[in-house]
Design goal:
The complex is a heterodimer of chains A (about 280) and B (about 450). With about 280 residues, chain A is mostly helical. Chain A has 11 helices and 5 strands; from the N terminus they run αααααββααααααβββ. Chain B has 3 domains: about 170 residues; about 140 residues, no CATH class; about 60 residues, no CATH class. Helix content of chain B is about 45%, strand content about 25%. Classes of the chains: A mainly alpha (about 280), B alpha+beta (about 450). The interface between A and B is large, with 72 and 86 residues.
């Protein structure tokens, strides 16, 4: 009787071990993961790489350069093709070489704790609890303020600073304000064009060389002069700004634009015109 | 009797109201005056600062001209660089956007660029080249002209009590050519463009904006607007899209093109098709994307198929940005294993169904034929010696990079790490100069 019980327990433990093992093997989704990705898969990748001491950065679910180099080093040491992408072979090797305590990692990410996940170190020594007051909600707030820059994932916790090089979140927000104030009645493509004009001015030596100086240059934008820049921009304006800083320029290189019905400057008519979008005429 | 009381009472109230109104009006007036004076003082300060900095700049440039080696000149050049930045900031605080007050700004930008390149960026101590000396002398002459003109305006402002607030008013009103001496003076400070731009990321060359540097005229025959429409439909693979509007770009455009607006199943599509050759410079679909079902890898497969179907070859994915459920993938041309960063194109993929939402190859069209010699003069190990020993090189290759002078140059590109940071260092493959160093955030 007793023997049987013990045997039963042993079997149960074994089964659960096996189960947990297969569960682990399935933990990665089937997708190929690459630099620029965010999400659960990336969290697992980072945790596993950290477990075997290849990755020393934060486990935050965004696949940036730090993770990329760690992965490449792993691939080269384990005789894999060094391509910086996580396909099925790399996944298999990673799963064999490391462990992943999903519950531990996810809990700490959710709670916003500072933590690491090195193999061979007791887990409770790797967590630095965050002050309870600000836990959790903080990262969520940061997401909301960030305008177009971030991509909250399903869990809401994985964010990535995906702005093109040279732009900060405040630049994007300020531009969205200006674009909204200047062209909220305009078609979307016209809003992208207005954003592009701001960027073109930054590139041009005859204008200031950063976003905020271009926007606040006295007399440059009517929305700044009459205070409409401080209206709350909508999603469309933010998207337009993101499209423009990612390289789309429907204005075709314009430096000025004006509304022919309300333009007060005679000089603006002397500029070589490029085209008209909505109510605005764009010119050089 | 009663009526008299009434009248007396009412008139007392009326007088009280009048006095109140007067006091209120006076206070308002005073307040407005204070604000106006504040604003005026701010403009005055900016202008006088500008003249002061240009003054010092002229002196500083003159001093540098008398120096021999680059090493001895370096502090002077750095000082000039600093002054140019200060002057630029002051100039941009003046209400002159709609006035051709551009030469001063351009001159300052050019001085900044030159002093940075010769005094700060160049690492070795070779004496100034002939060209550099000539440039320095030219800037010096230019600084004297600009200084004189600014001084002229300044003395007028002082002696005739001209106000910048009036300038602002004059600029806003239609009758701009009224007798406003400040504007007249500033108009004389006008000239032509110099070549300079802020440095952007390698994949974002700016020569397209600054039309002067048209490296490659478009190839192909002139096309009619109807053919442009056909080309576009074929390119976006929407044969049944309805054309809403076709316009031609005016003479200010960096490339003559047809601007086309279409509707396809209720969604707008805007695009620009070059007149010469009928290339699709860019297009942009509008539609909301609410969820994410595919990841970056899938998106990159989609965009690669897109390029392949359109016979665009030898492109390599160098940058991926993901936001608002869309991915923007940047591809650059790879010639003989060398990445030609200025020849870049961007593809925007919707992450809900993998549709290509937008495409832009303006930079590619402008830069793909620029024949930069792809043979480095320096060996890679020689270039590596210029790197900070604390940097650990992870990846290196050859790349063509558009530097701040809008020139496409061959560089060694090093991706290197220090602690948790990743840097991209561009070292000129001809002389080892550091063209750009970037702290990568992605």
């Amino acid at each position: 009787m007793r023997k049987r019980l013990i045997r039963g327990i042993c079997a149960a433990i074994l089964a659960s071990l096996l189960l947990s093992h297969t569960f682990e093997a399935d933990a990665f989704s089937n997708r190929v993961i690459m630099r620029g990705d965010t999400g659960e898969d990336v969290v697992e990748l980072q945790a596993r790489l950290q477990y075997i001491s290849f990755y020393k950065g934060k486990i935050d679910g965004s696949f940036g350069y730090g993770t990329y180099w760690a992965l490449r080093n792993f691939q080269s040491q384990f005789g894999l093709t060094v391509d910086g992408m996580v396909g099925s072979t790399t996944k298999q090797k990673l799963i064999k070489a490391s462990q992943y305590d999903q519950a531990f990692v996810n809990r700490n990410i959710r709670e916003g704790n500072e933590f690491t996940y090195y193999g061979g170190v007791p887990l409770n020594q790797q967590v630095k609890k965050r002050n309870t007051q600000s836990s959790g909600g903080n990262s969520g707030n940061a997401n909301n303020q960030s305008g177009g820059g971030n991509t909250p994932q399903q869990g809401g916790n994985y964010t990535m600073d995906n702005l093109p090089q040279g732009y900060s979140k405040s630049d994007v927000n300020l531009m969205a304000n200006a674009v909204y104030g200047e062209s909220r009645g305009e078609p979307y493509i016209g809003q992208v064009a207005v954003s592009a004009v701001i960027i073109n001015r930054v590139a041009d030596p005859r204008f200031p060389n950063n976003i905020s100086d271009v926007i606040f240059q006295p007399g440059a934008f009517t929305a700044v002069s009459d205070g409409q820049i401080w209206l709350t921009p909508n999603e469309s304006a933010k998207k337009a700004v993101m499209d423009a800083i990612n390289g789309w320029d429907p204005s075709n290189g314009a430096l000025y634009y004006f509304n022919p019905d309300t333009a007060t400057s005679a000089w603006i008519w002397t500029r070589p015109q490029i085209g008209k979008i909505g109510k605005h005429i764009f010119c050089k | 009797m009663k009526r008299r009381y009434w009248i007396a009472g009412l008139s007392v109230i009326a007088v009280a109201l009048l006095i109140g109104l007067g006091v209120w009006g006076y206070q308002e007036h005073q307040m407005k005056k204070t604000v106006m004076i504040n604003a005026e003082n701010h403009y005055q300060q900016a202008f006088h600062e500008l003249t002061y900095y240009v003054d010092s700049l002229e002196e500083s440039l003159g001093t540098a001209l008398a120096m021999q080696s680059r090493e001895s000149m370096r502090p002077q050049l750095v000082e000039t660089w600093r002054l140019s930045a200060l002057a630029h900031a002051a100039a941009n605080e003046l209400p002159l956007t709609f006035l051709p007050f551009n030469r001063t700004n351009e001159f300052l930008a050019h001085v900044g660029e030159f002093t940075y390149n010769t005094g700060v960026k160049t690492i070795n101590d070779r004496p100034l080249s002939n060209k550099e000396s000539k440039n320095l002398a030219k800037l010096y002459t230019e600084s004297m002209t600009i200084r004189d003109e600014l001084r002229d305006v300044q003395s007028k402002v002082m002696s005739q009590h001209l106000r910048w607030m009036d300038v602002e008013q004059a600029l806003k009103s239609k009758k701009q050519n009224q007798d406003n001496q400040v504007i007249d003076g500033m108009k004389r400070v006008d000239g032509q463009a110099t070549d300079y731009t802020q440095s952007f990321s390698p994949e974002n060359p700016r020569n397209v904006v600054l039309e002067k540097k048209k490296i490659n005229p478009m190839k192909g025959a002139q096309i009619k607007s109807s053919q442009a429409v056909d080309n576009l439909k074929k390119w976006v693979n929407k044969p049944h899209a309805q054309t809403r509007k076709v316009t031609q770009t005016g003479k200010g455009s960096n490339v003559p093109a047809y601007e086309i607006a279409m509707k396809d199943k209720g969604r707008s599509l805007n695009a620009s098709v070059t007149k010469k050759g009928g290339h699709i410079a860019w297009f942009l679909f509008e539609r909301p994307v609410e969820k994410e079902t595919i990841n970056l890898y899938d998106a990159s497969k989609r965009s690669e198929t897109f390029l392949k179907q359109r016979q665009v070859k030898d492109m390599i994915l160098t940058k991926r940005n993901k936001y608002n459920h869309v991915a923007v993938l940047t591809y650059v041309l790879q010639k003989n294993g060398v990445r030609v960063y200025p020849a870049s194109m961007r593809i925007k993929v919707a992450l809900d169904n993998g549709e290509i939402l937008a495409f832009d190859q303006t930079d590619y069209l402008f830069n793909k034929y620029d024949d930069v010699p792809l043979q480095p003069k320096l060996s890679e190990s020689e270039a590596r010696k210029q790197l900070n020993p604390n940097l650990k090189v992870q990846e290196s290759d050859l790349a063509v990079f558009q530097n701040a002078m809008l020139k496409n140059v061959l560089c060694y590109e090093f991706f290197a790490t220090r602690a948790n940071d990743t840097y991209r260092v561009m070292l000129n493959a001809e002389n080892g100069d550091q063209e750009k160093i970037e702290l990568l955030k992605e």
